[in-house]
Predict the 3D structure of the following.
Amino acid sequence: MSWTLARLGSRFALHFEPHRRRVMHAALGRFCDQPLDLMVGMEEPDGTRRVLPLSADGQLLANTEQFERLNSITFRGFSERYRLRFEFNIHSVFYPQDERLCLMPVFYLEMRINPIQSYRWEQPTGPTPEKVKLFIRLRRHGTEINADAGNDKKPGRIEMVYKASPTPTPVTGQDPQQSETVEVNERLLSLNPGCEVLEQGDGLACTLPVTDDNSGIKWRLVWAAHVAEPALHVEHPTGSGPARFRYAATWRTLDDVMQEAVERRDERLAKSRRLEKLVEQAPLDPAQRHLLNQSFHSMLSNSYWMQVEPDDGSGAWPWFSVLEGARLYHSPIDAEFHAALFYLAVWPELLALQLRAWAGRAVDHEASGGCWLRRDLGRGDRPAGPAYPYAMPVEHAADFILLLDAYTRWTGDKTITTTLKQRVEGLAKYLLWSDPGATGFPTEGVTNSLDDGSPAVQFARGQTHLAIRRMTALRAVPALLSRDTPTELGEKCREAAERDAELIERNAWMGDHYAVCVDKSGLGVYPPGSTVPLAQETLEGWDGYTIHTGDGLLLPLMTGSPLPIDREKLRRDLHAAARECRGRYGCGHTSAEAETLWVSANLWRDALAQYMKVGGPTLAQLYWDLQVMSNTHMQSHGFTDAYVHNNLTYNPRGVCSFGLFMAGPRLVVDRLADTGPYITIEPDRHVPQRWPLLALADWKAGKIPVCVVDEAGRVLIEGETDPVIILGEPESQSPGPGLRAIG
């Protein structure tokens, strides 16, 4: 199955395509990569080279397999003729909020060779050897590759130098400047002595003894990359200029990268593996775990963490963005709205960087006296401003406010609200203006990001899910503007939100679900970017079921806001929509389009259902079926958020699967509550489980609390943490040895 392993922000990524017997590779990331023939394997005693399916050369090892964890992947194959097992592991170290560790453009490689007792009862050709030669060889078009066996003072290595375009493809309408190339330097360094150069000078071999699994004897290598030249050119209202990778300011040369990568290898691998083990404690089913691991590296492979060097010499400033996969838009607000569950779980600062960037791209709106936001920060390697063809003003104004409110309450950081107060005021004015009839349902600026959805759910007047999103955003405005003294605008927003909640309940409830939209008329409704109105008088599916009803409610619930609509009605809506919208790969946008789905929207809905205590079997296996289908039998699309009707391939949205670590224990965090920080958990008590509370971790100190549900249904906190209220904890229960209950 195709699989991606990537680094945060540095764009160094490997996209393994075993069915094509190659790796897509570049230090400039996915969409800038080229095929790499990576011949990795072992030499049998008779000289036959057995390889993993990552190279067109050599004879394949038998029964090749792959196993992934959060930060690594292992490929395995067998020599059935000599009863040997070969394993190749590639590790991309990640540890939250350790910028130096995460940014370093490095992969750690290990190979091992072990004996096996038998292989499917086949008779071996000869006895199992005592030692075996392992090898790694690289071939890549247009790349200078040279291997050196090394000596007592200099380890064996493979050097790679090539020119690459930083322009992700397919980007159309490129000007000549966008076709410029940058120089890339890479190196594979052997940490084991005694290497030899393969005959054509483009690979290394190392002889290892055949030992048992627990011997610890491995061939250890480090693969590092470095790009010193600018890889983006950013244009922004506050300044523009070339942008270099943020890591280049710390490590100015490939030698610098490699030296630190080798010196701190063991420490960094230990931290990264600790995170993997913590994550594996969580009671996820196999499909959820696969989705988490796959979508995480899909997000990493799309991330840019740069330093912009303004043309006016005013001083470098950071740029963090995430491409929308194959569509190549930088940080679309709606995509990062889903990804916020990852940021809140492990790295809120990355969300704050994007909030500031979006705020700088606002568009004034004369009629409301406010402003609205464009969808993205640009496209390709010259993000010069929003590039998406049409706007989604209500959705993105609401998304921005909800994200800012969630970030502020989750972290307790009020400084950002001071900086962005004027932007919040402008967006609030626009949201108030968008419902001129005071119906509770916006009728202006209603086109939303569900660009493959039916008119009823994408651009109809009176959409219920958009009305709820807008209402919850308005409800958040007063606290964002002032937490001490009410403001006039804040009071207007609060009053409108209270009124609209009642109107939504009254007009959208259909008995067992909320309608997709309350205005069923298609007259005068225009598709996005079109000057021709719809031909249908009545919108098909206007009264159907939709999984998007509560899209705007999850973040407020996670930060302790009371539910603004009837709890039991929302529970019924979630249950009914899951039944009526279900298709082959999950739930479609509405009951009228069951195969028009987004996996990320399903994951978001699942998290909301968990917070709302709506039971039922997980549909994660259906989401995973879509990923398997999309990455096998000559297909290679990375994390795929949508079925074939949309090009949401290699997409970062699935990283919202990190929401499992908040929704599972039903973690609620409001560090700015009136009575002081308010943190609660309320996990299911029927099954023993362990949930690492990633969002409460002190990563620098290495303290990660764990929510434990024991066999008796007691809920306990293991490890140091903030004071946490365990909801529903009977007073008679007491913690066991080494644990403490806080209530």
Summary: The longest helix spans residues 488-508. The CA atoms of residues 81 and 125 lie 5 Å apart. The two ends are 46 Å apart (CA to CA). Confidence is low (pLDDT under 50) at residues 172-178, 732-743.
